[in-house]
Write a structure and sequence with these properties.
With 186 residues, the chain is an alpha/beta fold. The protein has five helices and nine strands; from the N terminus they run H-E-E-E-H-E-H-E-E-E-H-E-E-H.
Length: 186
């Protein structure tokens, strides 16, 4: 009986330690407060080249002259699933003005998890169920490090037409704030 109590107390201690460590290091959501200002603004975007779901190389430098929203996400991320329909809508709405969304999937399992998710999932956009219509690239920890490290998902970077980081956001922000920031660059 003492052994069971000791095990339960140990498990409880680990859970509490994990909870408080997570709480202390968690990036707070900025819904409705706009993009989080950081030290990355104004710096050139990294020379990024990743594989898409068809194993083709996609380089950020190939998109110079366009406004690019790089969105780091994961299939298991709840806030990411909230953003995906917004990103689909924005891609469709601003494509003709030189705007591109690049989704960088950060799932540890890589393409084996991401490809079936993208193929199967449909998202409500303007009353219709639609697939993700923007390019999805497969990222990893090294990809995140190129952007100074990621503290959570979603994390997005808005890149100007001349290849500089305009804004960075960690966590979920409102549709209106994302739209306003994108439109300021178009």
């Amino acid at each position: 009986m003492k052994k069971i109590i000791l095990i339960c107390l140990s498990v409880l201690a680990v859970l509490l330690g994990t909870y408080f460590a997570d709480k202390a290091t968690r990036v707070k959501s900025h819904v409705g407060r706009g993009f989080r200002i950081g030290t990355d603004e104004g710096k050139p975007a990294p020379a990024l080249s990743l594989k898409d779901l068809n194993d083709k190389d996609v380089a950020l430098s190939d998109l110079k002259g366009k406004v690019v929203l790089i969105n780091f996400w994961a299939t298991w991320c709840g806030p990411c699933r909230i953003e995906i329909p917004w990103l689909i809508e924005m891609q469709n709405k601003y494509r003709d003005k030189g705007f591109v969304v690049l989704g960088i999937a950060m799932d540890e399992e890589g393409k084996s998890v991401v490809a079936p998710f993208v193929e199967k999932e449909r998202f409500e956009v303007n009353g219709q169920k639609v697939p993700m219509s923007y390019p999805i690239l497969i990222g990893n920890d090294a990809t995140g490090e190129q952007f100074g490290g990621l503290l959570g998902y979603p994390t997005s970077f808005l890149i100007s037409r001349d290849g500089k980081i305009v804004k960075k956001v960690q966590g979920l922000v409102s549709y209106e704030e994302i739209t306003k920031t994108i439109e300021s660059q178009l």
